[in-house]
Amino acid sequence: MTIRVDKAGNLDVHQYRDLKNNPLILVLLKDNKNPIGGQKALSDIMKRLYKDYGVRRVNFIGHSMGGGIMFRYLEQPQAKTPKVMKFVSLSVPYLGFGKYMGANSPYFQDMVKNKDKLPKDLRILNMVGNVNGRNSDTQVTVHSALGLKTLTDGQIKHYQAKVIPGNFWTASHFMIHENPNVDKIIAEFLWGQ
Prior knowledge:
Blueprint: E1 2-5, E2 11-14, E3 26-29, H1 35-53, E4 57-63, H2 65-74, E5 83-90, H3 106-114, E6 123-131, H4 142-145, H5 148-152, E7 158-166, H6 168-171, H7 180-191
Parallel strand pairs: 1-3, 4-5, 5-6, 6-7
Antiparallel strand pairs: 1-2
Helix pairs in contact: 1-2
């Protein structure tokens, strides 16, 4: 299934097969730099999957701002939505970026306020690239991505982090999700446990 969300928040759903046996549901946000709109869209999508398609459990994989939107969704539980079992966070700047980076950033502090609402049985795999040993994936620092640990300590069932070393083609922000080794790690996390 592919769900496209336009800038107004309207959903365009295309179902290609039934949603049994680990289907892939790709969500594409036209306005992917708008965390508030993205959160609302994700909430609408989850309600629709539950009501119209009978989906009761899901796993999330979110890259960059999409992962941030997913994490903030997880901090605001809602009734009659699929239960999120596992979350793969890929290159998400939890501590912010640029001049807005750090534990005191408003973005991070907003997440700190709601961390106790995370699902207690949630399992998280947090991954970020480290291009040429520079402690960054060229967009998100390793430090910022690993800030997720602070938000999950004592709140969820399982947290693990992996820093992926490599060059621009294997570990950069825009290429890490094309890395077959990353795909293997994700598959093992989602279906191997």
